[in-house]
Each structure stands twice: as C-alpha cells, then as structure tokens.
UniProtKB/TrEMBL annotation, chain A:
Cited PROSITE patterns: WD_REPEATS_1, WD_REPEATS_2, WD_REPEATS_REGION
Keyword set includes Iron: no
Protein name: WD repeat domain-containing protein 83
Keywords: Cytoplasm, Repeat, WD repeat
Major subcellular site: cytoplasm
WD repeat coordinates: 22-54, 64-105, 106-140
Organism of provenance: Gryllus longicercus
SUPFAM superfamilies from the UniProt entry: WD40 repeat-like
Keyword Cell inner membrane: no
Subcellular location(s) of the protein: Cytoplasm
Family named by the database record: Belongs to the WD repeat MORG1 family.
UniProtKB/TrEMBL annotation, chain B:
Family the UniProt entry places it in: Belongs to the GPATCH1 family.
Every G-patch domain range: 145-183
Renumbered residue ranges of the record's region Disordered: 70-105, 157-196, 342-377, 598-625, 647-677, 776-878
GO biological process: mRNA processing
Compositional bias (Polar residues): 812-823
Natural source organism: Gryllus longicercus
Source organism phylogeny: Eukaryota, Metazoa, Ecdysozoa, Arthropoda, Hexapoda
Sample GO molecular function, one term: RNA binding
Record's protein name: G-patch domain-containing protein
Length: 318, 878
C-alpha cells in the first residue's frame, strides 16, 4: 500500500467545524468521494448525475450525466483522468474526466450496482452489486464482459475496495471477503450482522467494518481477531459508511440521525467520541476522509455535502 | 616596481592585466540567465531548446549572411582560370579550424608519432631489414606517453620487461632426470648451465624480479584451415616458431619434430598431418606432440613449482603489502551444489502456512509417487489389510476424511431435498449407489468442494475410475440442469417466505455462516472461529492487470473464467456413462440373476461348475437361452437403440426357453420396469447426438463392435484371472446355487482389484499357489454349449492340459469327477469331452466370430426391432 504523506500536526478534535456546505442540486447525495490527492471531490446523486467539485471553494467543475437511475458510487482513478460510477440502472460507467465522455458502459450486473473502485493502476475496475456478484472490469480492453466474476457472496455486496494486491468486499450475508490476488486466497470473516462498509486501515493491518447493528468493528487483518469496536451511533436501516483518518488515528462513521461520529482509533474510555451534526433531517450515509490531511472530512446527507476541517487552516492551504 | 627589478627576474608566461580600480568584482554570482556561452565573436552559441534551438542570424553559414556561395568559373584568354581543387577547408567555418573545431590547426603529434597505433599498421609488424626487431629510429622518435599506472609502477621500482610482484629467488633447478636420457638434440647442456647459474645466484641470496607476464596477443587467422589445426610446415631450425606469432603462442605450441643430423640441413616439421573430423574424437596427437616433457621424470609426479617458490621466500610473500595479510577464508570457499530434485517434483508456489492452520492431510499424489519409487507393484490398501491384519493409519485417516465429507454432504443434501424440486431428476437411476454419490457430489459442489467426492467413492474403485466418475458427474450436472437451476445459481432462495400481502413486515436480518460461527460472532470471539480461508484463483488477465505472476492455487474450483462449452463435450462422457451402466449391474439385477441361475443349472444337468456358467455368458446370446436372459437383464438398463436390438434377439430365443420359462419371466418384467423407469429419467438427447456423431464419423457397426468387444473383455478377463477352478469346485461342492452370484460379483469387480485383493471367503486362500496350475488344468466341461457351437466354432484346437503335464493325458473324466462329481451327477463321457477339447478355440478369434455373428444378426433384426418391441409388450401382458 502506498504510504501516504501526513502533513501538518494533528488538530484537536474539538476544533473540527464545518467549513463549507454545498447544496449539490442533484437530489439525494448517495456518495461523496475525495479524489486521489484530496483536492477535489465527486458526488453521486439521485438525479442520475455525477458532479465534480472543488469543495474548498464550493466550485462546481463538471457535471456528468449518463446513468439511467441513481448513481450509487463513484471513484476516480489515481491519475485523475478517468472515473467509474455504479448506478442503480445495473450499469457501470467509465468516464473521461476532462471531456465528460462515457468511455465504457458495462452491463454485467443483474441488479443495481452498489459499489465500484479502480485498482491502483487504473487498469481494472471492481464493482459489486445487489446481485451478489463482484465483477472485475478491464478498463483497457473494449470488451463488454467482465474480466473475472467473483460469486462467493450470497447476498448483496455493499462495498468494494481495491488495494495493492487485495480486493475487499463487504456483503449483507455477514461476511467480509478479502481476495488476495497475489497468493490466490480468499479470506472470509463472519461478523454476525450484515456489513454496510468495509475498509482496510492505511497501514494495511486493520479491517474496519460497519455493521448494521450500530457497531463499527476493527479486526486484525491477519488473524481476524477483534481489535476494537466503536458504538454510539445509530445505523437504522441505512447503509452507512465508515472510514479512517489519514494517519489511522480516528474512525469516522455516519449515522442515521444526521451526525458524524468520530472515535479515536485506540479506544480511550476517557475520550468521548465526537458528534458533528450535519443535518438532523437526513442520515449521513456517506463520509470521506481527506487522503493526506488530518481533520478534513466530507459528509453527505440529504441534498447537501459538508466539508469539515480544522478552523485554523486557511482555505489556500487546503 | 622599478626597471631594475624587472631585469632581475625572468618572466615566464603572460602576466595578468592590472585590475581596474573602478571595476569592482561582483560579489553576487552570475545568475543562471547571465551564464551564456558565447563564441569568439561574442555571439551566443546555444539557445534554449524550447525556443527553437538556434536563432536567426548566420551561424554555421560560413560566417556570412549569404552563407556558402557556389564558386563561379570565369576564364578568358587573357587570364586563365586556374584549375582549382577544392579542399574541405573551403567549406569550413573559422571555428572548425579553431582549437575545438573539427579540423583544428594546432601543432600536435600526428598519429604517426602518437602512442596509439593505427589498425592499418598493426598488420605489418614484421620488419624486413638487416636488423631484426623494430627499427631503433622509430622507437626513438616515438613520443613518450606513459599511462598513469606505468608511471606509478615505475616509482615503485618497476622496470619495463619485469613482471609485477615480489622479488623471488632464482628458479630452483629442475628435478634430476630419472630414466632414459633426453635425446641429444634437445640441448641438455645449456639447461644444465642455466641451472648451475641459478643455483649459484640463489646461494648468494640474490633475488630476481618475477618474469613478465606475456600479454595476450590475438593472432589473426590468415589461413583457411580449421580452427586449431596447424598444417605441416617446414622451417629452418633456427626459427623457433612461425614469425608472425612470437610470445606465448609459440611456447604453447608443441615443439617441432627435428629431422636431419645435428649439423646443418636439419629441418623442423611442425603441425598436424591430418585434420580431425567433426564426428571424430581427437585422440592423442601422435605427430607433433611427441615430447619428453610428457613423461614424468621424477617419482610422485611433477613437482609443483608454486609450492617450492612459496617455501623459498615465505617472508617476502606474507609481507607483500604492509598491514595486509592474505584472506584465508576467501581461499577456502565451500561450494554446495543445489539439491537434486525428485522426478515427480512440480514447481508450485509454497502455500503460506499460519500457525493456526490445521495439520491437513498429507499430499496424496506425492505419497503415491514415493510408493512407486520404492516398490514396483503398488500394494492396495486391501492387500495391506490382509498382510497386516489390521487397519493402518492411512485407512483410518481415509475414514476420517470420508466421515468429514459425509458430514458435509448430509446437511446440504437435506437442505437440497427440502428446497429443490429438481432433486427428482435422477440420471443414474439404475445404480442407486452411484446416484447417491451423484447427489453427494452435487451437495459438495454446492459447498464449493467437489474434490471431496474422492473420499466418498468406494475403495475398490481405482484412481482412473474415480476420475472418470467425477467427470461423468460433472457432465451430468451440467447437462441435466434445467434453466431454473441455472438461474438459481445466481440467486439465493429466501430463508423465509415473503409475505406478499404485507410488504411492510420487516425482513429478519440474515446471519451468515454456521451456527458455531454465528455464536462466535455473537460472543465477539472473532478470529479462528469466524475466519474461513479457501483457495481462490484469480484469472490470468486480472493477475496481468495487477502486474503480478499468476499464483498457483491448488484445488481451487472457481477459476473465474467460464469454460467454452463445445458440442463435443456432451459426446465425451456419454459413452463412459453407458459403459458404467453395463459394468455395474444394480442390486435388483443381481437378484434377478440369482433367480435365473438355478434354473440354468437344472436345465444343464451337467458338471455345473462355475466356469461353465460364466463361459456360457461369454459365448454369445444364441447358445444358451437363460444366459441370454441374463445378458438382456443386464443390458436392459440402457436406452441405446442397438441394445434394444440386442434384447430383441432374446425374443427369438424364446422358444428355446421352454425348459424354464417361469423363472425367466419375472426377470423379464423386472427388466422392463427398470427400462421404463430409466427411460423416464434419461434425456433422449445424448443418444441422438451419439447417433449423429456416429453417422458422421464412424460406421455404426464398427463402433458397436468395439463396444461389444470392450464388454466382452470386461466380462471375460476377471473370469480367467480370478477364479481358479479348484476354488470354484470347492464352492460348487458346498453350495452350487451360490456360484452364479459370486460370478456376477466377480464380473462387477475391476480386474486389478480382483486379482490382488481377496476378501471375505477368499481371504484365507493362498490363491497364488493355486493359480498357476489352475488356468489350464480345468477343462471346460460344457457340452451342450459346445455342441451348439460346433458348426460355428470349429478351428484351432488347443488341448488345455498340454502345457505342463508330461506323458499320456489322464482321462478328463477323472479330474472333472474329482472336482465336481461328488455333488452333481457326473455325466461327462470321455469321448464327448475329447470332442469338446478339439473344438476349443482361441479367445480372440472366438470374439471375432461372435462379432461377425452379431453383426449379421443385427442386420437381420434391424427391421424387426419395432416388431420385437411389440412382442415384448405382449409378453408383459401375459
């Protein structure tokens, strides 16, 4: 895993506040994502569009239309030239970021595609859907068939992550599956409740997952043992996302009540988790942490996204 | 400074210009922009690469605006134009002739005087002249240009012509010659003198510099001979070698063979007279290398010169460099050759093992391989059980595995039966065992571990059969999967029925995994309990895109990429299927045979030994009615058209069955039933496809023949090998009615197992001792059969006893009577028997005959097929 450069001192959690609020005007925001260096963000909206923003200046850069239904996930490649989006219309789209053209439209899923990721090189994209299937797409070829079909899951796939040599999928069938491409091994962990999101920590040692029963779990990737669990938030029936900070210091999760919950990763009984209110009317379904800077967050709730950060930072720095 | 001062000093070089007081040197370094390269005229030479590389102006244009202009030719009577030869300099800039140009006009040593010699001159190194060697004048004129290394060496005391290294004592004298004296022409006296001199020097403590290492000279090949071959050449004796090759090459060369007397006119002949062919091995060089140096002149071989040198000056050697000593460790360098790989080694990625991993089963194939290496014949587990008399570890382990696999399948099968309506589909209805295994296989496949089927297959199947059956199952699973099942693969059936009326009822949240795992997850005991690891094979392209080598995953079922299904895949397994059906009759069928055979023995009323019954089964359908029935019941499970044709033959033989019709009838009806039932389950497609295939590629008769032959072989081989007549007779003596059952069992068993593994009744018998005489002692004592066969099988008589009995043949009636006469009334007449023996036929030829007969029959009955079917129905109705 590429080590990420951590810049700046870690701010006190208390100092996190809302820097910007953007009304995206694309219906409900299904997902918000930073790009690879955190300078831009992408939002996937219910109005079938994807929008590219500069969140620090509330600037809409481009809008991409082409999906037939809600866009459920979006991800941009490491060179920022392409992006993939997964739609409820069962299709995965590959976009050219600068021109806004659709390069590929893959229709390999039998139900809504819920999650999609590029691999590190951008040579392939991995998508998961409600048809229990994970598909690997070749972005370089013109073929319309998936490169590989991964069919181990027995229920809907909620999240897909691709790391250097690993593909991590979370499924409603209570299993987190880690496919090691290099070794040729599938490691599945039974968690006991449907999983809405699964991530690896930045150091590649921890397995962070949001369970639908109001718990965020941190397991050891190698042994599968429980390292920590974070609770307090309400997940309701929402598919909530969780993520970790750039330096693996904090765990961030959305909640059904419109709050963003931030725990310190090492459990500290004295420290209470921080609750940041985004919007009490809607659930915070998507959160994204800045890939390099600590304390910069994006959250999506309802029709708006919010940029959170350390107040001491100047906008120019960001 | 005064003038007088100036006079006193000698000024060398040009003095610096006096500094201007006003021109204060700049403190700041030149910026990058100011650092511009300019030429002599103060023009900028280089320009930014991004601005075009050169600026407009007249650079490189002969220094003029116009550039190079063609010369004009103008000549008149008054002033003639001189013929002007153009030189390269006419086309050059001033810079080109400058110091750094391409044709600098400065004083320097030309290449004639330079140290580096041109390649042209290298060829003419021989100097023709009165004085041998290089001309002295040339050497004098050559400028002295030494390399830095040579200069350093000189400072350290080295002289040209010496070698590099510590000084040594003069070379020790050569060992005294023991044996025959060297020939007089070799100049022994000179050497003696040298030796004496050296000894004197060594005694005086004089050390000499080591000899110069001769530089390696690459000698250009000027002749057209083969590499390494030197032709015969005559030279004067004085010339020690060819002139063009002085130095070490000459030393390495074998000495010349000298001809002629010691005074004048002697001629040395060097080289080889004949070459060596490409395919020949070069033997000792008998022509030119004959030399005394090839002999040992002292006992104990040639004395190592290096060792003596080292002993002569050890102190000098050690202190060659101050503060450095020889690294002894480096000198003794152990070399460990890589281990020899076993032949069965397959390079496979080492699987990462965790300490939590369960100790898995030992790799089976490797074990088998090692066995094969150790023993020429592989003992089966049954053998071992007989030998040891108890269960071995391996067997226990296998049972454990089997139990594990069964446990795995049980739950899944129940689930499947409960939920899946397509469980009603039974491709192997004729064989409940096989069907059961098929179901287990389906369950295992569902669990993603179809390879575990191996543990469930019975032990008496060999490896090949197991693989075959597995392939068959795979085929069946693919073929007989209805569309709903294919769709079902994609989806998981709901764990609870959807309440269609009330959509608002909350769906119960799913808990994945087994109960144990769920409990562990509930108790938050994550780790070993909740973790599952299995091999997963990423596809080639994915690995390529991830830029890694494809991992070798052992035993992974899900390869990711879908197989291309070819039409011929369907054809492959179907014949196997048929064969299996034939070879392994179901339980009810064997029961049917038991029902028949008493009647057979009754009908025969003869020494009804085991082999006779079997024999009759071998010998075609038309000879013995009850055997025909047996055969037909066996074949009844098939749906092949030609098989039905076969059964129709039985209809023809029905009149002959009059002796025991009541015994056969029920079996017939049974057979019909099984046939009907199997027809229900079978897809008609494979048969049709096969027919199509045959129509295209094979003539039907051929293929049928082959099948028949295969069948015949299958049936006949075990009979010959397994059942020695003595044993059989023993059995017959005790229970004649049982024999057919055993025979059918024997037919079921594959030949390998049957020959090696004896269990049950045969366990305590020493069959090997009995086997050798057994094959031929026992004459086939069937007469009715042979009588009927007489017209067809009358050729190539082989008297069976001739092999090992010498002298007059004992009457066969005696032997048969001894074996079977106790229980059954022996009716065998010697004369008849003789006639019988004379009609024995070699097996292969018999088969052929039979085949031909069959062919004929089928041809006959092909049109009757439909009729016979009708008849059968009638028969049933009766």
């Amino acid at each position: 895993m590429a080590s990420k450069q951590i810049c700046g001192p870690q701010p006190k959690p208390e100092s996190i506040n809302c820097l910007k609020e953007i009304d995206c005007k694309q219906g409900a925001i299904r997902a918000v994502r930073f790009n690879v260096d955190g300078s831009y963000c992408l939002t996937a909206g219910a109005d079938k569009s994807v929008k590219l923003w500069n969140p620090y200046r509330s600037l809409l850069l481009k809008s991409y239309a082409g999906h037939g239904q809600d866009v459920l996930d979006v991800h941009s490649s490491c060179d920022n030239s392409q992006m993939v989006s997964a739609g409820a219309d069962r299709s995965i789209l590959l976009w050219d970021v600068s021109t806004g053209k659709i390069l590929r439209r893959w229709r390999g899923h039998a139900a809504a595609a819920t999650a999609v990721r590029f691999c590190e090189t951008g040579a392939c994209a991995v998508s998961g859907g409600r048809d229990n299937a994970v598909r690997v797409w070749d972005t370089r070829a013109y073929g319309l068939k998936p490169m590989q079909e991964i069919n181990q899951a027995t229920d809907a796939i909620t999240s897909v992550r691709v790391y250097e040599y690993e593909i991590l999928t979370a499924s409603v069938d209570c299993k987190v599956r880690l496919y090691d491409v290099r070794v040729g091994k599938l490691t599945s962990d039974i968690v006991g409740a449907p999983i809405t999101c699964a991530n690896l920590t930045n150091d590649g040692q921890g397995l962070l997952m949001s369970r639908s029963d109001d718990i965020v779990l941190l397991l050891c990737k190698d042994s599968g043992e429980l390292l920590a669990e974070y609770s307090g938030h309400k997940s309701g029936d929402c598919v909530l996302e969780s993520c970790v900070d750039a330096n693996d210091s904090r765990v961030i999760s959305g909640s059904a009540c419109g709050n963003i919950w931030i725990w310190s990763m090492v459990e500290d009984p004295e420290k209470k988790p921080i609750k940041l209110l985004h919007n009490s009317a809607y659930a915070v379904c998507s959160v994204a942490a800045h890939p390099t800077q600590i304390g910069i967050l994006l959250s999506a709730s309802g029709r708006t996204i919010k940029l959170w950060g350390d107040g001491s930072k100047q906008e120019d720095d960001l | 400074m005064s003038d007088s001062d100036d006079d006193e000093f000698v000024v060398y070089g040009t003095g610096l210009e006096p500094l201007d007081e006003d021109d204060i040197p700049r403190k700041r370094a030149l910026t990058l922009e100011d650092q511009v390269v300019k030429d002599a005229q103060g023009r900028r030479r280089f320009h930014g690469a991004f601005t075009g590389g050169f600026s407009a102006g007249f650079f490189n244009t002969v220094g003029s605006l116009e550039g190079w202009t063609p010369s004009s030719f103008k000549s008149s009577r008054s002033d003639r134009m001189e013929s002007k030869t153009q030189r390269p300099e006419d086309f050059m800039d001033d810079e080109d002739t400058g110091e750094f140009g391409i044709a600098p006009k400065v004083l320097r040593a030309t290449s004639d005087f330079s140290h580096l010699k041109r390649t042209r001159e290298r060829t003419q190194r021989t100097f023709d002249g009165p004085i041998p060697g290089e001309p002295v004048l040339k050497l004098l004129l050559e400028p002295v240009r030494e390399t830095a290394g040579a200069r350093l060496l000189r400072r350290m005391g080295w002289r040209p012509g010496q070698g590099v290294g510590p000084r040594e004592a003069p070379r020790p004298p050569r060992p005294r010659v023991v044996g025959c004296a060297p020939p007089p022409g070799l100049g022994g006296e000179e050497e003696d003198e040298e030796e004496e001199e050296a000894a004197a020097l060594a005694a005086a403590g004089v050390t000499l510099a080591p000899e110069d290492a001769a530089p390696f000279l690459a000698r250009p090949k000027a002749d057209a001979f083969g590499l390494g071959y030197e032709p015969l050449a005559r030279r004067p004796v004085l010339s020690t070698g060819p002139a063009h090759a002085p130095g070490p090459a000459a030393a390495q060369r074998p000495r010349a063979l000298r001809l002629g007397g010691p005074r004048g006119g002697s001629v040395a002949v060097t080289g080889q007279a004949f070459g060596v062919g490409a395919l020949e091995e070069e033997d000792e060089d008998i022509y030119s290398t004959e030399d005394m140096s090839q002999y040992d002149f002292a006992l104990g071989g040639p004395a190592p010169a290096a060792a003596s040198r080292a002993s002569a000056a050890p102190a000098q050697h050690d202190n060659y460099l101050h503060n450095f000593c020889k690294d002894l460790a480096a000198a003794v360098k152990d070399f460990f050759p890589p281990p020899a790989l076993p032949r069965a080694f397959r390079p496979e990625g080492a699987r990462r093992r965790s300490r939590f991993d369960q100790p898995g089963p030992p790799p089976a194939p490797a074990q088998g391989a090692s066995h094969q290496c150790q023993a020429p014949r592989v003992l089966t587990t049954d053998d071992r059980a007989v030998l040891v008399g108890g269960k071995e570890e391996e067997e226990l382990e296998r049972e454990q595995l089997r139990a594990a696999a069964l446990k795995l399948t049980e739950g899944l099968q129940q689930e499947q039966r409960g939920s899946k309506p397509l469980g009603s589909f039974v491709p192997f209805a004729a064989h409940p065992e096989k069907q059961r295994r098929y179901e287990q296989y389906l369950a295992l496949k569902r669990a993603g571990q179809p390879e575990k089927l191996m543990h469930l297959q019975p032990l008496n199947m060999n490896e090949w059969e197991r693989h075959r059956e597995k392939a068959e199952f795979e085929q069946a699973a693919r073929l007989f999967q209805p569309l709903s099942a294919e769709m079902g693969e994609r989806f998981v059936s709901a764990s609870q029925p959807d309440d269609a009326t009330n959509t608002m009822t909350p769906v119960e949240k799913l808990m994945g995994g087994t109960a144990e795992q769920q409990n562990a997850a509930k108790m938050k005991m994550f780790g070993k309990l909740t973790r599952e690891e299995e091999p997963w094979q990423p596809c080639d392209l994915l690995c390529k895109r991830f830029n890694i080598a494809k991992p070798i995953v052992s035993g992974s079922a899900n390869t990711g990429s879908r197989k291309n299904v070819s039409v011929f895949d369907y054809l492959k397994a179907v014949p196997q299927n048929k064969l299996q059906v034939k070879t392994a009759p179901s339980a009810e069928l064997s029961a049917a045979t038991t029902a028949i055979v008493p009647s057979a023995s009754e009908a025969q009323t003869e020494p009804g030994t085991h082999e006779t019954v079997l024999k009759s089964t071998e010998l075609g359908t038309e000879t013995e009615p009850h055997v025909t029935a047996l055969k037909s019941t066996e074949l009844g499970t098939e749906t092949e058209p030609h098989v039905t044709a076969l059964t129709s033959t039985e209809v023809k033989t029905e009149p002959e069955l009059a002796s025991a019709p009541e015994n056969i009838q029920p079996t017939e009806s049974k057979k019909e039933k099984t046939q009907e039932s199997s027809e229900d389950f079978f897809f008609p497609e494979p048969a049709e496809k096969i027919d199509l295939f045959k129509a295209i590629f094979l003539s039907s008769s051929e293929s049928e023949d082959e099948e028949e032959k295969a069948k015949q072989d299958k049936e006949s081989v075990p009979v010959i090998e397994v059942h020695p007549p003595v044993e059989v007779s023993h059995l017959v003596a005790s229970a004649p009615a049982e024999t057919p059952v055993i025979s059918s069992e024997a037919r079921k068993r594959p030949p390998v197992v049957a020959s090696s593994a004896r269990s049950g009744v045969f366990a305590n018998l020493d069959l090997d001792a009995l086997n050798c005489p057994a094959t031929s002692t026992f004459p086939a004592s069937e007469r009715k059969n042979s009588e009927r066969d007489e017209p067809k099988t009358s050729s190539a008589t082989v008297p069976p006893q001739d092999n090992f009995v010498y002298g007059p043949r004992p009457p066969t009636s005696l032997s048969s009577g001894a074996s079977s006469g106790r229980t059954l009334p022996s009716v065998v007449a010697p004369t008849k028997h003789n006639s019988l023996t004379s009609e024995w036929v070699e097996r292969t030829s018999l088969h052929k005959k039979k085949k031909e007969k069959k062919k004929k029959k089928e041809k006959k009955h092909k049109d009757k097929k439909s009729k016979s079917k009708h008849k059968k129905h009638k028969h049933d109705k009766k």
